[in-house]
Design brief:
Rossmann fold; 5 helices; 6 strands
């Protein structure tokens, strides 16, 4: 047991380790007013992020409402056109900013051993259609250095909330 602990302590001295990291920035259109936001993506990370932003007093429009209007408009849902059409729907619903979440996972859903390998969060101003912010998460090296989903989301939500005073 003592050898295992000693090996764990000495291993970083012989191999370089890179911690997991979250990088990015947000340039809000109006930093003095929290925008009405909608998270478009359907994933665990997106759901966690929506809850964290609600806890930080952001007004969030439900995905169901977006997709309901989208289906009423009978708009095509493919590739870049999908994103553009969602922004159009956002304007109809008076949404200020839309959040797109993309993540890459590895693991086994049945065992519950899923690890987020990388994630990107893109924030788009609905009026201009411009990306006003983006954040990226990358797993550390060696791959055993990672953050749990709730920690990734908490850090990103803190960064988003910190941009609005």
């Amino acid at each position: 047991m003592k050898k295992l602990i000693l090996l764990t302590l000495l291993l970083p001295l012989f191999f370089s380790c890179t911690p997991p990291k979250i990088e990015g920035m947000l340039n809000p259109v109006n930093p003095h007013k929290k925008p009405v936001m909608a998270i478009v993506s359907d994933s665990i990370l997106a759901d966690f992020l929506e809850n964290m932003l609600l806890q930080r007093q952001f007004v969030m429009v439900e995905r169901k409402r977006l997709y309901s209007v989208l289906s009423e408009q009978q708009l095509a849902m493919s590739g870049i056109m999908r994103e553009n059409k969602l922004i159009e729907v956002g304007k109809m619903l008076n949404i200020d900013a839309m959040i797109f979440v993309n993540e890459r996972q590895e693991g086994n859903v049945l065992t519950g051993m899923i690890q987020i390998m990388s994630a990107t969060v893109k924030i788009v101003d609905v009026d201009s259609g411009k990306v006003i912010g983006s954040y990226g998460y990358t797993i550390g090296d060696p791959p055993g250095l990672y953050l749990k989903e709730d920690e990734i989301v908490r850090r990103i939500a803190d960064k988003i909330a910190g941009a609005y005073k």
